[in-house]
Amino acid sequence: MYEQELKTTSVPINDNSKEVFLTTWPGGYTENWEVYGKVSGKTEEEVVLKCLSPFYNTAGSVLEIGCGSGFWTDRYLAGNFKSVMALDLLPSVKFIHNNITYMEVPDRNFSCCGVEDNSVNFCWSFGVFCHMSFNACQMYLCSIFRKLVSGGEVSLYFSNNDRRPKTNPTPFDPNEIQWLMNDYGKTNSMLLKAGFIDTRDLMPDLCDTMIYGRKP
Q: Average pLDDT of the chain?
């Protein structure tokens, strides 16, 4: 059934437009741990310790998918990697650090355009893929895989409705940001399909999935 959910069209159906995201979060989304901490029961420090700091590399590069206003970018990535490439839908983002290169993503483009193939040591994304279709997530994962160097690693957030209070799927509304009804098995299958190996759940006690993968 999961395979049937993955479409082969170049542009996925059932994905919100760039305009809808920018209207929903003017100026970009900013992570609010007072909100997510209550939902997850975890502190920001716990997530960083298990899902981000083990991959710090002051001699390497990091790609962030969906930087928003720069919460993770400035607070954790810029000071712990040699260079940061940050992608989002915003026309521009103001950062504190000067080792960050920002790239504006075109409407419903999941190719990591502007990032050179085989150039990235690590990829981080938090709170982004939960708002995309399975097909868009798969496209993004294949793109991330191409951008990574051999041995490159990822730590990526996906929704996991097996761990959240049970909700019923709702029909896709192009004007309302979607929440992907997902689980760890589907997420793991997408990473394996993209070519990642050694996949594992970095934080099984989190209410969502933080998954690890490595490019051979």
A: 93
